[in-house]
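Translate sequence into structure tokens.
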Amino acid sequence: MRRNILDNQLLYPKPLNMLTYPYENPPAAGESIEVAPSVFWIRMPLPFALDHINLWLLRDVKDGVNGWTIVDTGYGSAETHALWKRHFVETMQSLPVHRIIVTHYHPDHVGCANWLHERTGAPLWMTATEFMSAHAAADDAAGFDRDNSARLFVSHGLARVRPDFAAAQATRTAAFKRGVSSVPRQYVRIMDGDDIEIGHRHWHVSTVFGHAPEHAVLFCAADKLLISGDQVLPRISTNVGVWGNQPEANPLKQFLDSFDKFSSMPDDTLIMPSHGRVFRGLHARIAELKQHHQDRLSDLVAALAEPKAAADVLGVLFKRSLDDHQLVFAIGEAIAHLHYLWYRGLAKRTLDADGVYLFSRVAG
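Result follows.
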């Protein structure tokens, strides 16, 4: 039996997939599904291979006035705006929006936040690091600029295995600004441990890490409801990458450690993820995600018999061809997995004569 790289325990057989999906089909464009009393699931399109994001409408009341809280906003595009206008009338019954909660700064989550804020007057609620990151990414500041990450990827060998990488990057418009034309200039800060009263429910805020700097998830213990954002997804694994402004980061450890925040939640909690379908089976899914990363790390250790750069192991981690958009996320994720091994002392890192980082496994 192999040793588990994540916790140094013996590996056991993979858990059976025990996820259940209470709704066979997601809501169609412009439509909604009430997944719990006063909690509505809507879906918006994305211009990527991952072609959708789930958003949540929660009935709310402020100063005796019935209205809504929106959780996550969608990618900033004319198509999304048109769908929001339809939801304002058909789903939300033209009632006011009392607040806009954004789980993290990525374009599919924050993209329409300012458009919604300007249209409804509702304040943005967000963690501080995510709010600042959204502004930094929109302004190409604080190391979020494309060139900074491109230099990181070149230092991990990408130009060697993809000689066209630099030219492809030069022709791409700024990816963040395509989906986020602007970000609100003011916000209400939410923090780990906060309790937010929305309608007749109390939602507990937990912050999780690795995918984004200070990603918020919302849990209603009384009704066993979890808005999990991108931390727990039912079918795909969350992207966890190293980026140009934190080149020495260990985000995979942060991501895996964050699962501890869910340990006391009931397994029959209804999970409302940002992608895929609403589901139950929280702890089975977390076990699957841990096993997924364990398998990838084990494959990497086997591949590092000879020194390799992150770009050299893309084929170990990703069995499909990668377009230019996917390549950026893939190389960030490859670095994250190599860093996890490096910080655990399971791999060593050296710098070759060309300034490219190479990783090799440590014997033992």
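Note: Residues 69 and 132 are 22 Å apart (CA to CA).
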